[in-house]
Design goal:
The chain contains five helices and six strands. It has helices at residues 37-47, 124-131, 148-154, 157-168, 171-182; strands at residues 2-9, 18-21, 77-85, 100-108, 113-117, 120-122. β4 (100-108) and β5 (113-117) form a beta hairpin. The model has no long low-confidence stretch (mean pLDDT 93). Bound molecules: adenosine-5'-triphosphate and magnesium ion (MG). ATP binds at residues 32-39.
Length: 183
């Protein structure tokens, strides 16, 4: 799985709809301080289901919605879509037949939120399952932010084990076992 495109609207500093295309190979996002580079990474993490505003550098989840600037009024909704290219036959049944699929997250100022898979409403669980064992999830190792390497090195063995299990492809089974035991 590889990220191909990000569409951002009403999320943090991205008030108007912005589309970022990522070709094969390495892409770099460059720009002056405060222009929104880290907000792009926050957008990816958020669309993958991040539930902690602190991990998105905010105090409340509402902080991800564009809050207005000198020239623009605040907006009522944040929306981020991520388009992934997928090798046919890979991933869970929901996306196995698609060469490309899109996940979307929306948040309204009244607190309502939505997750969509290929524009069809779904549960957060469906999104999480898509990326389990791929290393892509909101908390997985595909996003190495500032301070992360030090955090991994200094982590307790149990916490470091989480990353190893994700890489080894065990986390999906652990999650299913947990759900099964709860039933
Ligand atoms: P640096 O090079 O310093 O790391 P950066 O390009 O990573 O900068 P970001 O942290 O992505 O910059 O963007 C910060 C900008 O985003 C700030 O100007 C901040 O006001 C704006 N911003 C963050 N959240 C919102 C919001 N909810 N509404 C409007 N603007 C926001
Ligand atoms: Mg930054």
């Amino acid at each position: 799985m590889q990220i191909k495109r990000i569409e951002i609207a009403g999320f943090k500093s991205f008030v108007d709809r912005a589309t970022l295309d990522f070709g094969p190979g390495i892409a770099a996002v460059v720009g002056p301080n405060g222009c929104g580079k880290s907000n792009v990474v926050d957008a990816i993490r958020w669309a993958l289901g991040e539930q902690s505003p602190r991990n998105l550098r905010g105090r409340a989840m509402e902080d991800v919605i564009f809050g207005g600037s000198e020239s623009r009024k605040p907006v009522g909704m944040a929306e981020v879509s991520l388009v992934f290219v997928n090798e046919k036959g890979q991933g869970p049944a929901t996306v196995r037949d698609y060469a490309e699929f899109m996940v979307t997250r929306r948040l309204f100022r009244n607190g309502d939120s939505e997750y969509l898979l290929n524009k069809t409403p779904c549960r957060l669980l469906d999104i999480s399952e898509l990326f389990m064992d791929t290393g892509i999830g909101a908390r997985a190792y595909s996003i190495i932010e500032q301070g992360k390497v030090g955090q991994i090195l200094n982590a307790k063995p149990e916490d470091r084990r989480f990353l190893i299990e994700e890489a080894a492809g065990v986390s999906k089974f652990k999650a299913r076992k947990k759900t099964a035991l709860r039933k």
